Amino acid sequence: MVYENLEPLFKNDAIVFGLLMAILAFVFYTSSLKEGFWAKFYTYIPGILLAYFLPALLNWPLGLIAPEWYSNSLHLFLSEQDLQLPPNLNFSEITEFLVSNGIPEKAIKSFQQSSHLYFVASRYLLPASLILFSLSIDIKGIIKLGPKALIMFFTATLGIILGGPIALYLTSGILPDLIKTDPSEIWKGLSTIAGSWIGGGANQTAMKEIYEVNDSLFGTMIVVDVIVANIWMGLILYGTNISGKIDKWLKADTSAIEDLKKRVSDYRASVERIPTKALTILLMATAFVGVAFSHLGAELIVPILKNHDEFIKNWKLDSLQSGFFWLVLIATIYGIALSFTKARTLEGVGASRWGSIFIFILVTTIGMKMNLGEVMDNLGLFLVGIIWMAVHVIILLIVAKIIKAPFFFVAVGSQANVGGAASAPVVASAFDDSLATVGVLMAVLGYGIGTVGALICAQLMALVSF
Question: Can you list the alpha helix ranges (DSSP code H) found in 9-138?
Fold first, then answer.
């Protein structure tokens, strides 16, 4: 009997990483061309958007790479259980099939395989880039950005809180048969998306536990969360290329942002040196010793906080038990602290340049996690997600128009909520390397309010469920 192939063509991370680097080389080379087709192409499409979506295409529909998959040996195991996989199932659907047929969790995990590239990029390269970007941070310049940054951040949070119930109400009222899930369960499942979009993974897990969302529904919600959030991130990255036009429409005053960019650029020029081998090693050591220190801090702090589990859950501070939260926070504080020392001059040998390289590698690994083919498998829930995100965006643009906030604050305020610390600095640095730390600081704030905001959103969704 011929079984359907469940595995990507390339499973070795060394090969996959080579493909991702080839994509980056292609993007950077073509974007450097000053005339011809590519010069016109990059006038409209930012390079970082290609670095994001090309790996997604290698995942689906090409099937060359994947973030996670099942081994083909699963077919033999299932045949021994008198079971057969239905055709064309994605990873989440295979998991759901196995769980519904009573396959033990241990057996399921034994057939699961995954790429570790995103883990390496997000746990090692991301904190390193945050440190490198923070070395030359201009605290005075960031303060001068004023209250509009915070206003747009909290507006983004409000947009998610209100967007959930509005989307659920509209979808249930207009197309009641589109969502097959029990209405009494659907709002609970959607609460996990609210937790992710306001805070992060820890807040999402907190919602799952609070409302006892079953694993099958939770898996579907993760798919909706990832795809909708990634599509929105792609649109934001496109927006960075036309931010001037958007700012003109918003009648925004971008002088504080331009001043910050100029101050950092001027400082970079004043300390610029030839990056010798010794200086480059010193730069890398500064970054990765900081990464080590951040991991050590997270490993020491999280177990202590887990001993106070009841207090933390009562106060809805679940993010404090996330190792990733502390990793990002400590790395940022470490980098900012070094900006007050002579280490600041390492900007002159390429600190932010290396930070950008690490961020671009992270972007490709985020892109490879996106399977656009899964949209068709969950149309009803994706419609809820799209309407939800649309409400979020509309509220953001209305407030930005009223207070004349720059598109930078709209984009980073939104991504600090929806994407968290892994993608907020990506969006911020797409505007300018000097702005990456602004994205991180906003994302850390999102972790703090994620669970409370998601609880409010969940209760509003419960009220409109029918």
Answer: 13-32, 37-44, 47-59, 73-80, 91-100, 105-110, 117-120, 126-134
| CA 361 to each of CA 63, 121, 185, 428: distance values in angstroms, whole numbers, following the listed order | 20, 7, 38, 16
Q: Which long-range contacts (CB under 8 A, 24 or more apart) does 435-439 make?
A: 435/257, 435/260, 435/261, 435/408, 436/129, 436/130, 436/133, 436/355, 436/359, 437/130, 437/133, 437/134, 437/137, 437/142, 437/332, 437/335, 437/336, 438/142, 438/145, 438/149, 438/412, 439/412, 439/415
CA 286 to chain centre: 25
Q: What is the pLDDT of residues 79-124, one digit of tens each?
A: 999 999 999 888 988 998 999 999 999 999 999 999 999 999 999 9
Q: Where do the structural domains in the chain lie, given as residue ranges?
A: 13-115, 119-464
SS3 113: strand
This prediction has a pTM of 0.81
The token duo for 263 is 């101050």
Helix 201-210 with 183-198: angle, nearest 10 deg? 150
